[in-house]
C-alpha cells in the first residue's frame, strides 16, 4: 500500500464537477483506493461516496492506494486533485 | 390575480406563460411484470440511451450545463447506484421503481448531510432518477428544449436538467410552486440571472399562454392583467433591461467615488449560498453574516459542528476577504422554536440577542467555539448584536475568552478572530460609544433598529410608519456621532442596514464621512454605481447642513442639491 497527503486547493472543494471528474479518474485504475480526512473515509471511485465526505478547500486528505504501481497511481491522483479548478 | 412566492432572482418580465406539464406520478412499490433478467436489460438499455443523450447535450452546451450533465453522468454509472438498482430488480421491483428507489436513497443521504452544496446534489440525483424512470416507462419527461417563443415558465416542480436542457434564450422568467431558496433550481436560476420565484403557491392556476407579469425582486407574479396597465409593465421591463446592462459593468470595478475616494462595499448575507454573488461582483467581503437561519424552523439547537462547517466553508470561500459573523440575534420579530422563548408583548424591547446569549451558555458557547475554530480558515470578524451597555459587551467578551479556554483545554485548534466588535443600534450604546469603544475593535451601525429605537416606533406597525425615516436629522445625528467617536477612538466603523441600500441614504452616509457600507448581494453593483456618481468634496459641506436641518424633507433638499441629476434614478 502507498499513502500520500494532498491539499484540496480549488474553490468549491470536492463538490459537483470536481467530484465527478475525480471519480472518473479513479475508476480508470484497477487499484483499491481510499481517501481519508479525520474520521471521514470514502471510496473515490463512487461520486456518492466522495460527496458524502464534504471535502472543502484547504483540507488535507490522505490518499491510500493498494495493489500494483500504487505509488504511480497515487501520484497521478494527487496531481489531479491539486490541479482541480472551479 | 397576484401570487406570491420566495424571490430568488431579481428582475422583471412581461411575457406569456409556458405551463410545464407535471411530472408523472410513480408508484414506489410497483412490482415487475417481467423477469428480473428482462427488467435488468430494460434498465441497462434506458441507462445507455440516457448516457448518449447526456453526452450529446454536454457537447452542444457549455458552462453550468456541462457541469450538471457531468455530475449526473457520474451518478448514472456510479457502482453503488447501479448495485442498488440491481438489488431492487432482484427483489422483484419494476425497473423504473428500482431506479426511483435507489435515487431516493441517495437523495436522502445527500440531503441529510446538511450542506447547501449537497442539497443541490440531492436535487440532481432525484432529477436523474425521474428522467431514467420516464425513459424506462416510456413516459414523456417534461421538456423545455423546444421553446420557440419567449415565455415565463410556470411549473409545479422544475428539475435542474429541465432548465439545463431548455432553450434558455427564450426563458424570461421562472415561477415554481415547489422549491425553496436552497433548491438547486433556485441556485441555477440565480446563477443564470433569470428573474425567478419559487415556493409560489397557486401559480399552477395560471393558464398556458396567458400574459403574466413577474417581479422577481418582490417575489410576485400576476395574471389577468388589465389592458390599461400593460404599457406600465412594458416600461418597467425595458428599464430593467437597460439598467441591468449598465450595472454589470461595475462588477469588475472597485467602489470609488467620482473624486476617487475608495469606499468599501461589503455584503449582508443570510445564507452562504449567496457568496458566489459576493465574489462575482467583487464586493470587499461580508459585512454582516446573519446567523439566525441556523436557529429557525427546528426543535433543537444547532450544534457546534454544524455551525463550524458552515462558517469554515464560508471563510474559505471568501479567500481572505473578511467574513463578519454576527452572533445569534433571535428575539424581536423572529421566533425560534429551539430556544423555547416565551411570547412577549413588546418583543423589540424585550428578551433578544445578547440579552439571551449572556444567560444561555448552551446557546452562545457552541456558536463562539464554532466561530473561533472557523477562524483558522480565513479572516473572521465577530460581532455582537443589540449591545446596550458596557456590561453586556464585557459579558460577551468574557464568553469569547471562555470559549477559547475550553478549546485550548481540549486541544482543539482555533484561529484568532481578526476583530471583535459590536452593532451600534441601541441609542444608549451610541451615546456611550466613547466608553464602549475601549473594549470594541469595530462598530457596525444597524440602521434599521437604530432608527426604530431612536423614534421609539415599531417598524412593523404601519400606523406609526411615519416615524421611520432614516434621513431625519435625529437619526443622522446618531450616525454622525457613531462615525466621529469611532474615528476619534481609532476603531473601524461601517453601516449595515437598509439605509446603505437606499440612494439618498447612501449619499447621506458619504456626506457624514462613512468609508464602509454593507448591502444585500443584489445591491452591490447598484451601490458601486451610486458611489461612482457622488463627489465627497461636494457632499462634505452637505453633512453639516443635514445635521442642522429641521426634518427629513430639508435633509433631502440639501442632498439633492449636492447630487448629479441622474443620481436618484440609479
Characterise the protein shown here.
The complex is a heterodimer of chains A (86) and B (570). Chain A has one domain (2-83): 2-Layer Sandwich (Histidine-containing Protein, Chain: A). Chain A is 37% helix and 23% strand. Chain A has three helices and four strands, in the order βαββαβα. Chain A has helices at 16-27, 47-52, 70-83, and strands spanning 2-7, 33-37, 40-42, 60-65. Chain A has a four-stranded antiparallel sheet. Chain B has 570 residues and is α/β, with parallel strands linked by helices. Chain B has three domains: 2-22 and 143-226, Phosphohistidine domain (Glucose Oxidase, domain 1, 3-Layer(bba) Sandwich); 36-137, Orthogonal Bundle (Enzyme I, Chain A, domain 2); 249-569, Phosphoenolpyruvate-binding domains (TIM Barrel), CATH 3.20.20. Chain B contains 21 helices and 16 strands. Chain B has an eight-stranded mixed sheet with strand order 1-8-7-3-4-5-6-2. The longest helix of chain B has 25 residues, at 36-60. The two termini of chain B are 30 Å apart. Chain A binds chain B through residues 11-13, 15-17, 19-21, 23-24, 45-49, 51-52, 54, 56-58, and chain B through 67, 70-71, 73-75, 78-81, 106, 109-110, 113, 115, 117-118, 120-121, 125, 309, 312-313, 316-317, 319, 377.
